Structures are given as structure tokens and as C-alpha cells.
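Hello,

I think I submitted the DGJ job twice by accident. Can you confirm which output corresponds to this input? Input:
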Amino acid sequence: MTNTMKSLLALCLFCGAGAVSTAETPVRHTSFKPGEIWTDNNGVHINAHGGGILYDKGTYYWYGEHKVEGDAGNRAQVGVHCYSSRDLYNWKDEGIALKVVEGDNSHPIAKGCILERPKVVYNKKTKKYVMWFHLELRGKGYGSAYAGVATATKPTGPFTFLKAGRVNPGKWPLNMDKKDQTMKTFKGVPGLTSSALPEGVRSEDMFKKDFEKGQMSRDMTIFVDDDGKAYHIYSSEENSTTHIAELTPDYTEHTGKFVRVFPGRFMEAPAIFKHKGKYYFIASGCTGWAPNAARSAVAPRIAGPWTELKNPCVGPKAGSTFGGQSTYILPVQGKPGKFIFMADIWRPQNAIDGRYMWLPIQFDGDQIKLEWKDEWKLEDM
Ligand code: DGJ
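Support: Only one job matched these inputs. Its output is below.
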């Protein structure tokens, strides 16, 4: 081996190809490559997991969980990361839009809390950007099941934390039978040991368990309808049932009007979109960080009735959503009727190495169809 070859080899080894946190030479992207490292304008793997996208004045903003290395990376050490793009392939790092609080462990978003699935919407009345997220208080595992909210005057932040808590305490769902709307007959429910309702337990009783203190809110998304009304859609009742709850006109509170949907179906990772006047829903089952088969549903109105459809994925690995889990459905600007299914391929042992899986949504009548693609472009839609 010549000296020049030896130096080249040493240089290659030194580069450490594949490191996620190290800046590589920035690359101009011209396609989506699901599951691969996706670098930003600095050549660093995008760090916005469980994310969602806001389109604002010609620019897309991608918000997601900033993860760090190792399994501790699943707890919030930094905050919500924001990126911007005009073409959806190339993303500029805009920094941390909502920072966790350091030095005060009693703060709801203290460093080390669990802060997941942030979603940002713009409120035309207040001219504020409103971020909602799933929050678990520091040191309490997944027991808090809070929804948190923060606002900003610019899409890139900084977002100011407003509050967090359980949802709609003391309120009955619009679609619960009147005869069920009483706590008089409620005798408690046993703890869950699996993702199934215990023998003999009615899903209405899972709801009543948290009637007074407020409903649990874990995996979530926010949807703004054409009439400007916003909805918080979240896994509730120990993830057994999904709630769709209306937000106030400024998008920072719940109005108390909500429906329970897919009772006892144990879904996580809800994502929703509207197409030709109908509402479509994609979610996952409940298996922690491990992938499972996606669910889908359609409704004529956001409050339902919702009809469950088939697993939207087709082809090899359809039974595990191609290794991913839904997080958001993005309407592509300038392409009416075109939507991108956004999903995470989690790497819980090294959270920062989680990958993104964006796939085009296809329809077969009412049925949503997702097919794996190694590489694709917007013009393929
Ligand atoms: C699945 C959820 O969808 C994720 O957001 C996260 O909460 C994991 N469970 C934790 O196991």
C-alpha cells in the first residue's frame, strides 16, 4: 500500500461514516428516501421525531421531538426542534422552538420530562402560533397523561409554555348515551395488564375512571378544519379509546365539547386529514416503540360516525407499517388531493437515530392505500 493510499484510508476511517450527530457535507436532496438518514442544511440528520408540519406563508415548518443519544434520549433533554423548507426535501435547522426548563425539576416541562408528538397550528384571530404536545411530568413514567400548550408570535418560536394538564374534567362526551352519563353506578375498573379491556369492563367505565380529574391525553395531533375550528385528537382512557375534542377560538383551551371514537380499540399515533369533504384517520395499535399494523377510518363529519377501514399498508411488511408508526398527514400545497403520510421508524435504544418514513397517500375508493417506496418524488404523486 502506498503512503497516499494509507492516508486516504485513515481519512475515511476518521470520517466515521454513518454517525448521526456528526455534521457531514450538506447534500441537496431531490427525492424522499424513507428510512434513510435525512440530512439538514448543516449535513446533520434531522432531529424532529413524532413530528408535524405547519405551512405558513410559502414555507413548511417541521416540528418534532429533539432526541439525544442512547435510551435516555427518549426523555426530553432539549425540547421541540424546528426546521423550515420550501420544497419538502431540503430542511434548514431553525433551532429549538420550545426549550425544556433547566434548574427547576418541579416545572411541568422540566428537563427529563417526556414531551412527545408536538403539533403547531396558526391562529388567524390571535395571530399566534399554537403548539400542543403530549406531556409526562418528569420522573412519573407515562402516568400523568397530560396535554401541554405553548404559543409564539413567530413560527420558529421561541414558544412560551402556557399550561399542561388532563383534558375536559367533569364533562360528558357528546356521543355518550344519556343513561350512561352518571357516576352513581360507577364501581371502579381494574388496572390494565394488556392492550385489551379487562373481561367484563365496559369502555364507558374506562372513561368514568377519569371523569372528575380529567381525561388522559397521550399520543395526539391537532386538526384545523376549513371553518377555522381546531380539534385535539388524542389517545385517552389508558389508550383504549380516542377522543376528538374541540378547541376554543384561540386554540389554547378545550371547549368541553368532544366525542369518544373507536372505543376499546387501543390506538396510538393518530393522524387526520380531509379529502373531498370526508375526514380520514390513520393510527397505530399499542405496542410501545415496536411497530404494528396501521389502522384507518373515514367519517362524513369530524364528530363521526367513524367507520374503520382496512390496514392502509399493502405489500411486504404491511403488517408492521413497514417498520414505522404514523405521526402526521401533510396536505401538499399546490397539489389538491395529494397527501403525504409521515411516520417514524423508532430506534428506542439510540433515540437520535430514529428515521423518517414519508410515503404518498393513495386511494382505492374510500380506502387509503400506502405502498413502500425506496425513493420517490413529489411529481410521482
Ligand atoms: C408509542 C407512542 O406512539 C410513542 O409516541 C411513545 O409514547 C411510545 N409509545 C413509548 O413507548
